[in-house]
Amino acid sequence: MSSCLVLALPDFTQPFVLECDASREGIGTVLMQGGHPIALERWKLLLHKRLYSINDKDMLAIMHALAKYRQYLVGNMFRVRTDHNSLKFFLGQKQLQERQQKWISKIQAYDFDIEYVKGKNNVVAYALSRRPTTLSLMSLDTDWRARILVEYSKDRLACEILDGQVANERFGVIDEIIYYRDWIFLTEGSQIKKKILQASHYSPLAGHQGFTKTYRAIRERFS
Predict the structure, then answer these.
(1) pTM for the whole structure
(2) Residues 6 or more apart from 60 whose CB is under 8 A from it?
(3) Fewest CB atoms within 10 Å of the CB: 22, 40, 95, 206?
(4) 25 and 112 both lie in a single domain
């Protein structure tokens, strides 16, 4: 884990570099030292924070990173790299919103300079901020359509729906795929259901959450 190909171990005698970026969906942060990543994170923005201005989103990314990597940064001089040039002048603004004033008060605990870099030179944080956080059938199984059609052929209810024997307006068929209201219909024993459950609970990004959080995550992504 300390080789140059993966995460490096921190050296508190050397300066740290914090790279941050924000997109419409999330923020990405990378703590670097000597050109090697120490830690990195992708964080999904809550709905109300997606309405922030571009300037505030990028500042939010910095504030999140400061809190996340506080143990590395407090007491050390470091640089923050961002592709939003106006943030270099954030501390000098005279008119600040309430949340910006709170950010200013928290920043006082750190000693850093903000450095502007072009987006193409901030590739890791840029990629993390834009990494999809939602699951899709395509991400779970690239041949999901063919798999569903095979499962339909072995399921009595699905066959009846496809043959027009079920008089229920909540079911519809588009291009041989059955929909229940606006959702794709999966058979009771569908293997895709198991893949959805596994990806929503066991994957590293899911974090092995409990039943309630896993259920809500599935409802959010597949409803």
Answers:
(1) 0.54
(2) 22, 27, 45, 49, 52
(3) 95
(4) yes
